[in-house]
Design a protein that fits this description.
- With 320 residues, the protein is α+β, with helices and mostly antiparallel strands.
- It is globular, with a radius of gyration of 21 Å.
- It has a single domain, classed as HIT family, subunit A (2-Layer Sandwich), CATH 3.30.428.
Length: 320
Amino acid sequence: MQQWLQRQFGSVDAVTTQRIVRVTNKVTLEDVLYNALRSRRPIQMNDGSVLMERLAQADGDDPLADPEATTLQDPWGRVQGAHSITAANVAKLDAHSGVIVFDTYNPLRFDEQAVLDCFEVGWEWARRGHQTDTAAVYYMLIWNCLWRAGASLLHGHAQTLLGRGQHYGKVETLRRAAHAYAAANPGRSYFDDLFEAHETLGLGFEVGGVRVLAHVTPLKEKEALVIAPPFHQGLPATVYQVSACLRDRMGVRSFNLALHQPPIAPVAEDWSGFPNIVRIVDRGDPLSQTSDFGTMELYGASVVSSDPFALAQALREAVA
C-alpha cells in the first residue's frame, strides 16, 4: 500500500506514527478522539459552487415561499418579526412545536439582523405559548441548516419547542451534572470552571459578558459554545458572529445550532446558575455521500479531525 499511502496521506510515516488524543469531560462524560489524519482519508469532495448555484433561488416547489398562505399557525397565532414569521410545525417534534420561517430562501445568506430577529421571534413564540399553556415552560430553539444537518426543506428556517414536565433530555442531563458538580465542589460553578479550563488552554475568551469557547470535547467538527447569563442582550449578536465566522472563515456550509436555557417560568427543580448556552457544530459538506456520523458517534465517542485551536483563533479574530 505504500504508493497509495504516499499519494493519499503525504507519506508512509504519517500513517505509521499517527497521534491520537483522547479528551474526556469528567463531569458530563462527553468524550472525543482527535486524529488529524482522518481529515485526509479518502472521501468524495464536491465543488462548492454546485451547492451555491442550487441555493441561488427557490424552485417552484417551495412550501415556505409564502408562509401565511401555505402554512398553519399555532393556537396563539403567528409571531411576525422584521425578517421572519412563525408557523405551526405540521409534523410536530413535541405538542408545542413551531417553525421560524426566514424571509431569505438561502439559509446561508443570514446577516446579524436576521439572527437577532430569529432569537426575538422565538422568545416571543415561547412567551405566547406559555400564556396559552402555563405548564409548558421548557423552551428550546434549534436550527438545522441544510439537509446534511437534518433539514427537510431548503428554505431557511429554525424550529421552536416548548415542553412540559421536564426539560429535554440532554438539557436536563447537563443541569443534573452541573448540580452534582456544585454539590461536590462547594462554592464552585461547573459553567465557570468549564470556561476557565478552556480559557487556560487558549480555547475560550469573553467579550461583553458573553463567553465563546472552541469546545474541547465537541460532538463533531468545529463545535463552538456561546455562553451568557439568562436574558443577556449580547447573546444573539455573538451567536451571529460565531456562526458567520464558521461560514466565512472556516468554510462551514451545513450546521446544527441549539439554544439550551432555563425554564421560562418557575419550576420545582433547581436551575440556579444555569446560563443560556448556544451550541453550533459543523455537519460537513452538504453534497458528500459520506455521513459524518457513524457507529462511534452514536454509541461510543465522538471522532474528530479538526483542530480546536485553529477554530479558537478564527473565533477570536472574528468576535473579539
